[in-house]
Every structure is written in structure tokens, then in C-alpha cells.
């Protein structure tokens, strides 16, 4: 999932003295004070008064235990360490704008840098297929007979990065990728993406971070996660319940993926059109368009659709499997009967 609705700066530990010497010698920066001591590190606060830029702003520098600095300011602010050079020119690889993933070429680059075959064969033991978009295989709207648009291709990944609106290939980047702690499949997906992104350019750096599920949900809703791993289990068996959560601006994921306004409006119109139709053929055409556009725009890295299996003793019969239930083994226990 691409989000990126947060403006943060990461200063690697090797630059910490340069950062402090630059900032704290400025006449409009007050002497820092300790805000809090946490398990992650020490939070240092300071007050800045920069005439003509953003007035009085209370901010924080966060020193983590690895000696790195995380520097954050309210969104939409330009951060200058002197009267000439903005932060992205002093520490270009640390600059991560909130519009980073609004660039379709960057989104496509990430999609080409994921090794789908390795994920399915190694992490899922072959028990899955590569996703084609938000709509699952076997459902109206899935584009039968068509392969997914993206596959693991480092050359295309590099090509897309170089087509980006920003000079990301030269400046590089750093950010953290989140998954919910305890979900090893999502951890492996994060590590595969991290390894392949970093392999294509040594200026690219990603840290994989496990978060407790409630913490991740709160951070996602607040727009604090640049990228994270998520999934969906249908509430009802209809393509609308796959298109709307991922792509509509009021959907579970759609409202935080930070699409440009025109693209968000396009998906809103398509999702609402599909929901308003009753003819199966007309609906199929709309949802197939949604499926294709979601891939073309690389709104997410569409990973995999897993295979689920239930194993029983031979004497169990008349078991009804409903994939819409998360714990289907026991959801229909009343329908079981002993075979002869």
C-alpha cells in the first residue's frame, strides 16, 4: 500500500554532527531541551523563529538508538538550515516529500521491483497466484486469460525510477516499511521488496518495521505510513467489496493511499458506476476496466491471492466450505455429518 501523507526527514547517523552544528548555531534556534526518553531513543525539542518562512514552530529531533536523526515538521513547510540551502539540498537522500508516491513512475518502479515468483514459491510454498489487481480470480471483473501487468524486472524498475518527475535516481531515499507484528508472510513480503529496491540502487534504503496491529491501524489512518503491507477478506461476495475498499476515496485503503485528485475521482466514478448497475455483462465491463486501471496506475503493489486448504479425517462428510468466513473450519460445524 502506498500512502506517504507525511513530511519527514531522516538524517543518517554519519551526518548527525553536521546536522546539529548547522542547526544549533543559527541565531533563530533556541538551545534544545530533552522532551522524552523512550525505548527508541531520546526526543529533543527546540523552537525555531525563521522570518519569512514559517514563524514560530515547535518541532522535535528524534535520536534513535542507532544514532540516526528523524526530523519532522508540519506538512507544507519548507525547512531551511540557512538563508540559501533547503534541507533537501544539504541531505538530498533524506528528503521524503508527502507526494513521493503520487508519481506513477515511482509506483510502477516499486511494482517491477517485487519478486512475485519468489514470494509465492518460497513464502507461500507455491500455495497462491500473483494478484492481477483488487478483484480476485474467479470473480466477475477479473480479466480472465490475462497475465498481471507487472512482473519482477529490475531493468524496468530502473527505467521507471529514471522517468520520475523528481531526480530520485540520483538523490536516493530512505523510509520505513511497516507490517503487522506476528504476520511472517507480510514480513517476508516487506523483506523481498526491501532487498530488491536496495539492489537496484545503493542510494535507496528501506527499513522493515513490525508494528502491533492496533498501532499500525492508527498510524495508517493518520497518514503516517509511507508504505505498508495489508490485505482484505471480503465482507460479501461481490466485486464491489474488492474495488471499493482498495480504490474508492472512502474505502478502507482508498482514503489513505494519497492519489492525485483526478485519479481518485476517476476511480470513485468507476466504483460507483459498477455498484449502481444490475446487468451482469454491464457490471463485468466496468469492473474489468477498474482491474486494468488499478494495474496501469500501480495504485498498490498487487501481491498474491493465497490458496486456502482445510484437512479432515476421512469419516467427515457433507462439509460446506465458504471462503468468505475467516475461520471456515468451524463456521459450518453444524453442516458436518459422519460418513459411513
Judged by helices, strands and strand pairing, the structural class is alpha+beta
pLDDT averaged residue by residue: 74
Helix content: 25-40%
Spans where pLDDT lies below 50 across 5 or more residues: 2-17, 26-95
Give the percentage of residues in beta strands: 15-25%
Look up the CATH topology of the largest domain.
Answer: Dipeptide-binding Protein, domain 3
The CATH superfamily label of the largest domain reads: Dipeptide-binding Protein, Domain 3
Query: How many whole angstroms does the radius of gyration measure?
Result: 23 Å
Number of helices: 12
CATH class membership of the largest domain: Alpha Beta
Sheet having the most strands? 6 strands, antiparallel
Sheet with most strands: strand arrangement = 2-3-4-5-1-6
**Distance between the first and last residues' Cα:** 49 Å
Shape: globular
How would you classify the quaternary structure? single chain
The domain count comes to 2
Order of helices and strands: EHEEEEHEHHEHHEHEHEHHHEEHE
Secondary structure: number of strands:
13
**CATH architecture label of the largest domain:** Roll
